[in-house]
Amino acid sequence: MTNAAHHQPAETPALLKTPLWELHKALGGKMVPFAGYDMPVQYDGMGVLKEHLHTRRRAGLFDVSHMGQALLTAKEDPALALEKIVPGSMTGLEPEKQRYTLLLNDKGGILDDLMVTRWDDKTLFLVVNAACKEKDFNYIRKTIGKDVKLDYLADRALLALQGPEAEKVLARLFPLVAAMKFMTTTKVVYEGAELFISRSGYTGEDGFEISVPAAMAERFAKQLLEHEEVKMIGLGARDSLRLEAGLCLYGHELDETVTPVEANLKWVIQKRRREEGGFCGADRILAQLKDGTQRLRVGIRPEGKAPVREGTEILSPEGQVIGMITSGGFGPSVDHPVAMGYVESAYAAEGTQLQAMLRGTARPCAVAALPFIAPNYKRD
Amino acid sequence: MSKTLFSDDHEYVKIEGDTGTVGITDYAQNALGDVVYVELPKVGAKIAKGEQAGVVESVKSASEVYAPVSGEVVAVNDALAGDPAAVNQDPLGKGWFYKVKIGNQNELVALKDEAAYADYTKDL
Predict the structure, then answer these.
(1) Helix or strand run (H / E) with residue B13
(2) Average pLDDT estimate for A65-69
(3) Which of A1, A7, A239 should be substituted to probe chain B, the one whose Cβ sees the most B Cβ atoms within 10 Å?
């Protein structure tokens, strides 16, 4: 047998540890290298399947401290400068509101996807991907650093509490969170320190992300785990949850060769930005909005039970290669294989019958609506 | 009287006369995690030792299963299509993959017995 049982990574530079590393070990976390960190992929006695289902039914706690948290400040609104390198409306972001956006290179290719929160008229809070944080921060400083100051908050941990019972649990500690809506944020004081709470996540479920000082992260996590609704969840289920939710993973659906329009993320470009442009790669992106693109990101539903994985070729009914799977696996909640990938735009309509080349055999699959599960966000 | 032997690639073969029942070991199923799909060889297929005999997929990854011994496939465990989790629950019992008519008994010498395999996986 290959892979799982044999996958022993070669000697690599020492992996970084999050402030919850000791807790992961104590809880039986099976540790794997991820984005330079030693991270739990799953926990003893649970496993990806159970962890996934627990999050959809109750509440899962995720350590996402490897992600990059930073503050963007300026004499004027830092959103003015940030809008040069992201296609979303940042100046239009109201205090305590959060927005998903994309960091673009000068060709409109995606350098990273990130969350931006406005704290006040001079301060934005960013959360970027772990594997991209150094690149992102350098790029931001290089491109707009004369107008804004970027401070990496290296001394903070980030926890995600996700699932239908997340609100009930977190409201026992902080009653005000029950009134929060999807993509809003607040600050609370816990044991004398400031926590930043947002009502958002990466699972398709209602839930929260909570930024806490590194020094109290373990204590705070343990306090959440005392509630019987909550279990610790590893990166394996984080991936299967976000895939069912149709959410992109940088390095898979998104990279520098892909534009927001190709990635089917044109909703991140608000009306004013479509009219005014003025962001990196705007010429290309605005033209694509008008004329369409050669390829598009779509959901793929393989027929039968065999998962199709990243890198699998997608064929037209006539057998021509027309695309590639970028993420694929088994969806525990939908109980069938799920995938995302890029296909030529002519084949991107929902329901289009295609084939996936699996181990030398073309197997039927179809373009599927995303997400695969009905999201459970608290919109109102 | 049956005897179970193990490959370095974490397949087992349970020997009864000239028939071997092949599957993946408890160590392997534990490393893989929750099995969601198993692809089995066809009855009648002749598979040489070390060749791919099937695929086992967990939520997170796909792994190839290699024949621990050469021979002709005489039966496959069709029940795994409906119950792939049997590979996790009972890898050496109802989680078996296929049965093979062993072509060359001499190949068995290269496989590990239970104690040697336990010793081998201890250090992985």
Answers:
(1) strand B11-16
(2) 98
(3) A1
B37 closest CA partner among A42, A355, A308, A353:
A308
* Nearest C-alpha neighbor of A356 from the set A345, A343, A369: A343
Question: Is A5 an 8 Å CB contact of chain B?
Answer: yes
Convert the pLDDT of each residue in B57-108 to its tens digit. Answer: 998 889 999 999 999 999 999 999 999 999 999 999 999 999 999 999 999 9
ipTM field:
0.85
What number does CATH give the domain A3-66+155-244? 3.30.1360.120
Check residue B60 and give its pLDDT: 80
**DSSP character for B9?**
T
Inter-chain contacts counted by CB atoms under 8 A, chains A and B: 82
Question: For domain A68-140, which CATH number applies: 1.20.120.640, 1.10.10.10, 3.30.70.1400, 3.30.2350.10?
Answer: 3.30.70.1400
A294-368 topology per CATH? Elongation Factor Tu (Ef-tu); domain 3 (2.40.30)
Verify whether the Cβ–Cβ distance A1 to B24 is below 8 Å: yes
A330 to B32: CB separation less than 8 angstroms, yes or no:
no
Count up the domains in chain B and report the number. Answer: 1
A8: pLDDT strictly greater than 90: no
Which chain B residues are closer than 8 Å to A50 by Cβ? 34
Given a cut of 80, whether residue B28 has pLDDT beyond it is yes
A328 touching chain B per CB within 8 A: no
CB-based contact A3 B11, cutoff 8 Å? no
Contact A1 B58 (CB under 8 A): no
DSSP string, A131-197: GGHHHHHHHHHHHHTTT-EEEE-TTEEEEEEESTTHHHHHHHH-GGGGG--TTBEEEEEETTEEEEE
Residues of A in contact with B59 (CB under 8 A): 48-49, 52, 236, 240, 329-330, 332
